[in-house]
Amino acid sequence: MRIDNKLQDLKNEFDVSSEKIVEIAKLFKKAMEDGLGGFESPLKMLPSFIGSPSGNECGVFYTVDMGGTNVRSTKFELKNGSFENLGEVKSKLKDAEGKYDYTSGDTTGEELFDFFAELISKLISPNETGYLGHTFSFPSRQAGINEAFLIEWTKEIKVSGVVGNNPNYLLSEALKRRNIMVTPRAIINDTVGTLLVAAYMYKDAHVGTIMGTGHNTCYLEAKHPINGCEMIVNMETGNFNIGLPITKYDLTIDANSATPGAQILEKMISGYYIGDIVTLIIKDFYENAALFSDCSSSMELLSKNKIDSLTVENFILYPDRTIQSINCKKEDALILKEISEAVVRRASRLAAATYIGTLLHIDAGEIRNNHVIAVDGTIYEKMPRVPELLDEAFLEALKEKSKLISVKLVKDGSGLGAAIAAAVAVKLYPK
Length: 431
Ligand code: GLC
Prior knowledge:
- By secondary structure, the protein is of the alpha/beta class.
- Helices cover 44% and strands 20% of the residues.
- The strands form 3 sheets. The protein has a 6-stranded mixed β-sheet with strand order 1-11-10-9-12-13, with helices on both faces. It has a 5-stranded mixed β-sheet with strand order 4-3-2-5-8. Strands 6-7 form a two-stranded antiparallel sheet.
- The longest helix is centred in the last third of the chain and has 33 residues.
- It is globular.
- The site of alpha-D-glucopyranose has 18 residues, from helix 5 and strand 10.
């Protein structure tokens, strides 16, 4: 009885009602408009200096793409709307065996970008020259398509000497140190890359979003205040913090993070933190005798490995494996599944609220046009039921109008999008 109550209380606490979704959507729209107008807002509304691509971009381009977990370098050929991957190298930012860690505060910017240059060197033959597009998925204030200044690290990265600097300048210096004749020509956010690639595929692609290690969304602003033209805006929505249903677990995660007080929405949605939320809830249940009451070794076994987003996925999909791996009872495995589902459901409904807010802004207050939301990231792709949970949230909040929205998985936009951005830049600003 007591266990049932604890679980029901948790589900209630993690529920986001349809009314709350609408309320958050409206607050989000207002925050977008405040940010765009230069007023105080949790949304940074960063201009990208790029609009929709023409679809006719051509040429061979190198890319480098740093996310929260991996860095990848690819050589793409773009041919009037189609593309070919001519080679790719990828590496983790942090070695599983602890041999290196390019996310830590002990790493310098110079070391990080030397590491990128080394990856790029594996794709290029001696004396070859080329242009590069860089996907740098952290909040950066852009001054042009090839110039961005890192505002702050997110996703718990702490490398020194990069905040305040232009990653493309640091990268070009690293390339020069290795005599690699590749010139960076564009720098974009991963959400922007996702939207650029989606624009090749869907005529109504207006929003690009990542539900992965981090969480963020960009959209196409029809008339940007900077130039009066179409421009993609990287909102840095992970930092949204108004009207959210914050729990004691969220407060603990925030307090223990590298960025207390910042990236509140990201800490409720993204893959980096989802396992931590589930961990805190499990501990709370255990301490209140609502979990593992008859099998004390289970908590010990569970604590041996970090609970990450893949563990959460497994709790949901395979309770039988949970029973085996931590030697618990079926009831306990089912509680872990329900806890995980409640956390994932909340994440999906909060993301949906921000997408609705974005579309309300695009359509000036009422959704009336068709919109494709292009999404990439493991949480959307792999976490059970996230696509359905988003659709459910749209239907509950918007009823009939939800038919105007379709969410499409656009994989690897962050790599290819950088090649498209470089092609656009080279055409716009030939040297
Ligand atoms: C973090 C970054 C943002 C990025 C997102 C997804 O929120 O600040 O720039 O787009 O992660 O990778």
